[in-house]
Amino acid sequence: MNRSFKRFVSLLLAVITALSCVAVSYAADVMYGDVTSDGKINSSDALAILQHSVGLSQISDENIAAADVSADMKLNSSDALLILQYAVGIITSFPAEEAGDDKNEEDKNPAPETKEEILALYANAINGARETIPAYKLNMKTKAIDVKFSGSAMSMVPKDELETMKKDMMKESSFQNTFRAGSASALANLPGECKITDPSLFKDITLTVLPDGNYQIDIIFKDDKNPKAGSPIVTMLQLPDKTTFIKEMEEELGTATGGEDIQASVEVNAMEYLNCKISCVVDSESGQIVSMKTESDMRSDVTTYVLFFSMGTDTTTRTVNEYSNFAN
Question: ∠ at Cα 275 (272, 279), nearest 5°?
C-alpha cells in the first residue's frame, strides 16, 4: 500500500473521530450506508469500510451491498467519504440509490401513449392470460334494466301478473366462483382473445397510470346493432351474435313447450349491444392482468307466437363481470 493512500486513510480516520457524535437514522427499508446494521448512517459505517479496505476487518457478505454506496462494485475510501458526506448533510442520497431507482424504472414497461400501443398492451395481457390460464375469482351480476311487453296476448294476461313478471325479470341475479388455474372452466369464463389492431373500430381507448404505477386500460366499444360473428364485442366479450341468439331463443321455446305438438315460433325483431366496456388493470412490469371488469347492455326485441296469439318482449339486460385475484 503506498504512502499517499495510507495518509489519506489517516486523514479520513481523523475526520471520523471528529464526527463520531453525528448519527442519522433512516427508514427501515433503506439499506445503503448502514454497514454496521445498527439502523443508522454515521462515521462507524465509514470506519468499517476503511478498515475493510486495508484488511483490518472484514465486512460480512450481507452488508457488502450496503457498503458499496458509490455503485462501482468496489469498497474503498470513496464509499467511506460518501457516507461521511451523507452523515453531515452534504449529500442526501447515494449513487447506488439513484442507480437502483434508474434500474427500477428500466424494469417497468413505458406507459403506452398511442391508442395502438394501448390496444396492443391489452391484447398481450388478455391473450397471455388465455394462454397461461391463471386462477382467478369471478363475480358476475345480471339484471334487466328495461322491460316492455306487447302483442295480442296482452289482453289475456292480467295486469298484476304482467307487473309480477316484469319485477321478476328485473331482479338482479349474481354468480360467484373461483376458477382453478389451467382448468377448462377458467378459460371458458375469461374474456375473449383480442386480435384487433385498429383502434378506430372502438369508440375510445384510454390508459391511466395508477398511484401504484400499474396501468388501467379502458376500452369503450361502439354500439353494435344486429351483431355478426367476428365483431369486436362478440369476440372480445364472448357474447352471442344475432344468429347464435336466434338459435338460443328457438331452443328455449322448444324447452318451454315441452316437446308437445304446439304451433309455436319465435322471431327476433332486433338485437343490439349498448354501452359495452372493458376496464383492465395491467401490471406495469410484467404486463400481466391484475384485475378486470367488463360491462355490457344487450337489447333484444323478441316476439313469441303460440297458436293465434303473439307476445312481444323488448328487454335490455345489463351484465357486469368482475375478475380479481389472478394467480398463475
Answer: 130
Residue type, 156: M
Q: Which tens digits make up the pLDDT trace of 265-296? A: 888 999 999 999 999 999 998 999 999 999 99
Residue 254, C-beta contacts closer than 8 angstroms, at least 6 positions apart: none
pTM of the model: 0.65
Looking at 69-198, which runs of residues are DSSP E strands? Answer: 135-150, 173-179
Residue 299: other Cβ atoms inside 10 A: 17
Q: Which pLDDT tens digit goes with each residue over 195-215?
A: 999 999 999 999 999 998 999
Q: How many other β-carbons are positioned within 10 Å of the β-carbon of residue 73?
A: 7
Q: Is 307 buried (19+), middle (13-18) or exposed (0-12) by CB count in 10 A?
A: exposed
For residue 26, which phi and psi values (nearest 5 degrees)? -145, 165
Domains defined for the chain, CATH in brackets? 3-107 (1.10.1330.10), 115-327 (no CATH)
CA-derived radius of gyration, the chain:
33
At residue 210's C-alpha, the angle toward residues 205 and 212, to 5°, is 150
Q: How far apart are CA 233 and CA 267, in angstroms?
A: 23
